Every structure is written in structure tokens, then in C-alpha cells.
Amino acid sequence: MKTSIRTKITSMVVIFSLLIIGAAWFVCTFIIKSVFVYHVKTSLETTYHSCNEMFKSASEREMIDGDLYGMVDNPISAVVLILDPENKKIYTSINDDGKMMASLEDIILSVEENTNSELEEPGQFEIYINHDPTMNADYYDLVGRLDNGYMVILRAPMAQLDELMSVVSQIYIVTAVILVIFGSIFILIFSNIFSAPIKELNGFAKRMTQLDFDAKVPVATKDEIGELGNSMNEMSKKLERTISELKSANVKLEKDIAEHQQIDDMRREFLSHVSHELKTPIALIQGYAEGLKDSMFDDEENKEFYTEVIIDEAHKMNHMVKRLLNLSEIEFGEAPVEIERFELVQFVRDIVNASSILVEGQDINIVFEQQGPVYVWADEYMMEEVMTNYLTNAIHYVTPGGIIKIYFVHMGNDIRVCVYNQGENIPNEDIDKIFVKFYKVDKARTREYGGNGIGLSIVAASMKAHGKKYGAFNVLDGVVFYFDLDANMPC
Q1: For 157-168, how does the pLDDT look when each residue is reduced to its tens digit (9 = 90+)?
Q2: 80, 96 in Cβ contact below 8 A?
Q3: What is the pTM (predicted TM-score) of this model?
């Protein structure tokens, strides 16, 4: 069962207050009474000594009438009766005709008749509690002799003392109860004020458990609670930063795992495709080499044919391996991208001129009418690979007697280089796959001109390394391949 701090503080104060009331009752019952009795006895002794001094210093004239009222130090207004045994002269502070006087005289008479009493000696006195049947009351009586031998009786009523003690005790207890009540009310208010910021801190902590780091503790004091609020705010910031770092590290880790998985997949795919692509030329080389060994040719012409097949297939294998190594370097980031500024129009013309040997004897027209200069930023070597692959691909797939057109399109800060070849469209289900390694739409035709499906993969890897767009799309009478280059002057 939950118990609030406010309830605990209030309960502790109430328990403490009850202890105070109990202590007050104990003090009133035992200690105050003892203090009062001690005070009465001390006061009676004071009056006794005052009487002694008075009779030593007072003149005879001052003592003629025997009235002692106001002449002695009497803190508790005790009844004073002094008897001169020789002259039977009585000095008193009360009415001589009252019952009290008769009672006191009886006490003096009993003392005088007791010859063995210690009170026979001057300067001696005793204090005791006496029940007076005449007055039907209890008294504190001091009975003794002054230094001059006079008998003295000092009397203080116990009823007055008990009444006074009762009044004091009641006042003491009532005061304690009132203080406890007001103290409890005050502590309820105070505990609410004290517990309010703690409740607020608790609510903030609960929000933190829900990873709500927008919550901030308003710090209005400079005490321990204020320090705790500052510490919780700082902890919230650090916890948010730590969780953010952990999430970033987790994202990076997931990315690294995905990259490693992708690399493993690429390696497996690479080995699968390489083994598949090398299987045919190796089989051809092996077959024709065995034919040469077994002299299966009839004349020198067949021998020459066997030899040319072996050399041609070896050349294709060598070319494929080089391109695979080039592709691998780009994909795995081992080929650094060196960005430089170069003129794009002359760059394309040089590639077109270099490829002219591929169209000799064919009824193919390559059109490039772009005028320069057009400057771009890229790795010129990689872009040469991209442009050469696009142009070679267009030459192989253009319709006999068709045209190949190269043109630029301005795309904001980029220049889009487009290579169009007139011919058959690429099937829609294949157009998104042609940049995948070893993928061939027309395998027979690709094999015919020695293609292996690596060229467009090199295009994809190179453009990804530059962070630029590339792709292909069908038009009415052919296909357009494109790639973008940065034409913006870098800061």
C-alpha cells in the first residue's frame, strides 16, 4: 500500500506531539508538584530567617502591638505566629480571635509540653504536613524556635497549593494540546508545500521512464530539491544523448551488417556468374585444344580455325576478367573517385571517334550535334567507361541502317547525357534488371558479339560512386540510356 511523504511527515509530527502531551502530563503529575513543594518549603524557610532578622534588628517600640503583617519577607503569604514564652506575648500576621489562632496555639502548647523535642534549642525548626481538625484542612507547617528563643509557627495551606498546581497543570496541558493541534495543521500545510516539488520530480521521472526527454524540471529553489531538479535535468540530457548515440550506433551496426550481407551475397553471385560465364569459353578452349592434340583437323585451314577459336575465347576470357576486376574495385570502393573539371563536348566526340572502327562497313549513322563548351565535374576515367559502354551497347543493338543519337538535357545544376539507339524496345519486365551483373535480355545476340552483361554493371557502379542518376527508358522507335553529371561550379 502506497504511503505518501505528506502522510509520513504528518504521522511523525502527530506521534511526536502525543509524546509531548504525555511528557507534559508526567511533568505536571510528578515534577511540577515536587517543584511546588520545594518552593513552599524554601519560602517557609525564607520567612523563618526573615523573622529571625526582624527580631534582631527591630526596636521594642516597633514590636509593641504584635502585628507582623507586612513586616517580614513572606513570599507565599504564610500565616505567621511567634510566641514569647516568658512574657506570653504573641506576634502574628492574622486575627487573634480566629480559629486559626486557636489551632496554632494548640501546636505551640504541644511543643512546649514535649520536653524531649529537638525544638527546645534556639535556631531549630521542622517542616511537616499537618492535618488540622479544627480547620478541617491540610497544611505545610514550619515549627521551631528563633535565635532569641521565641516559638515560631509558619503555616501554608495545601489546598491553595494544590489548586494552584492544578491550574498550572491544566494550563500546561491545554497549551500543549493547542500547540499540537496548530502544529499538526501547520505541518499539513508545510508537508504539502514540501512534498509538492517531490511529486513533480516523481512525475518527471515517470515521463523519463517513457523516454519523454522534452520534460524539464522547473528549478525555483537553491536547496537540495533544487539541486536534485538540476541533476535530473542534466541526467535527462545525457540520457537522451546516450540513447541517441546508441540508436545511431545501432543503425550503423545494422547498416554494416546489411553491407556485409550484401558483400557476401555479391561474392556468391559473382562466383556463380563467373563460373557460368567462364564455363562456355573454357569448354570451347578445352575441346579445340584436345582436337589440336589429337590432330583432328584434315588440313592447315582447319588447324588455323582451331587455333583462332582458342585465341578468340582466351581473349574474351581475359577481357571479361579485366572488366570484372574493374567492376569489383568500383563496387568495393577500392577505386577512388577523383573529381575533376573537364569539357564534355570534346570528351564525347573523342569517344565517338574511337568507336568509329566498330561501325565501319555497317550502315549505322552516329549523330552528335552538341556545340561546346560544356564543363562538368566528375571522374573522367570512370565517365569514359560509362560513355563507352553506352555507345558500344547502342552499336550492338541499333537496327541495321538505323541511327544512334547523342544529346544533352539540362537538369538544373546537372547535365543529362542521353544515348539513343533506333531499334527494338527493351521488355518492361527487363528494363529494371539490365544494370544487374551478367543479366542479358537477348543471350544469343549477346554471345554473338562477345558480350557478358558486365558493361552496364560498370555503369551502375560508377554512377553510384558519384551519387548521380542513371538508367534507361523506351521511346517509340528505340531505347534511350542516360546518366547525369554535375555542371555546377563547386564552392
Answers
A1: 887 667 766 777
A2: no
A3: 0.41
